[in-house]
Amino acid sequence: MNTNQKEPADSRLHVDVAATLRSRLPKKYLRFIPDFAVRWLERTICQDDLNGILDRTRGKKGKEFCSAMLNDLGITYTVNGTENLPADGRAIFVSNHPLGALDGIVMIDFIAKHYDCDVKFIVNDILMAVKPLDNVFLPVNKHGKQSRRSSSYIDACLSGDMPVIIFPAGLVSRKQNGGIKDLKWQKMFINKAIQSKRDIIPLHFGGENSSFFYNFAKLRLRLGIKFNIEMIYLPREIFRNRGARFEINVGKPVSFHSLKGGINAADEASRIKEIVYRLKTR
Asked: Do 203 and 84 meet the contact criterion of CB atoms below 8 Å apart?
């Protein structure tokens, strides 16, 4: 691998696999990475396509970036059950997570346009690397100790009036016996709803990734590999959905008064997950 390649001369947001490897790996390891492996990784994560979108949406952030990205990809969506949405948007909006990227982009666009306001999205802190959305994301550290500053920021946002979105599963849906479905929903959103006195709005997002993605994930599990290496194929799933039309079903609000939280939070999270999947049949 050639390590003398220069960084891009301008300051545009740019996906560069080779530059990332050079900055993250010690030089003594770089010489063991052949050029063909770097080129394979660039093609796998659709580096050229990602940079094309970043160039065409340059200068846009937050909800404006989401709208521009959906327009660029020719993606549309319909929403059923809008009568169930609260008038002021002060709620926690929870949804299944079937796609891994586009479902989040669509959700931000939908909620921001419906309420004509900015929104916040509770996500894995790794996603803070997605700079056009770092003003929307509320980071949660899923693999280490949550910082006091980060927790305080989430609580401050929840105490305000801005709509807050979360995918309680954290991970993208997988193929299971019952079809394409989320893994276990985490209980945090239950306790946060009670703490912030926000009702929970269940949403079902209709969409699936390719059979290749799900089969690769199953193969990885059979091989006993714990690291979710199938995630490198998620950018490919974005571009596979060019021109797609998705459907969102909105369920009736779950009042925070009806929740107990604490030792009951996990069961309550599972119950709301079931409510979300029942919306699929509407």
From this structure: no
Spatial separation of the C-alpha atoms in residues 37 and 29, rounded to whole Å = 14
Task: With cut-offs at 50, 70 and 90, classify the pLDDT of residue 15.
Answer: confident
Describe the strand order of the beta sheet including 164-166 as a list of residue ranges: 76-80, 245-250, 199-206, 91-95, 164-166, 120-124, 137-140
Tell me 75's DSSP state: -
- Using alpha carbons only, how large is the chain's radius of gyration in Å? 20
Q: Are 256 and 272 spatial neighbours (Cβ–Cβ below 8 Å)? A: no
At 226, the amino acid letter reads: K
What's the pLDDT at 250?
A: 98
Q: How far apart, in whole angstroms, are the C-alpha atoms of residue 103 and residue 208? A: 10
- pLDDT over 90 at 255, yes or no: yes
Element housing 174 (H / E): strand 174-176
- Phi then psi dihedrals of residue 76, to 5 deg: -125, 170
Q: Which range, of 36-50, 55-69, 100-114, 204-218, averages the lowest pLDDT?
A: 36-50
Q: Within a 13 Å sphere around the CA of 74, how many CA atoms are in the beta-carbon half?
A: 6
What is residue 10's predicted lDDT score, i.e. its pLDDT? Answer: 44
At 5, list the tokens. 């390649």
Distance CA 94, CA 251 (A): 10
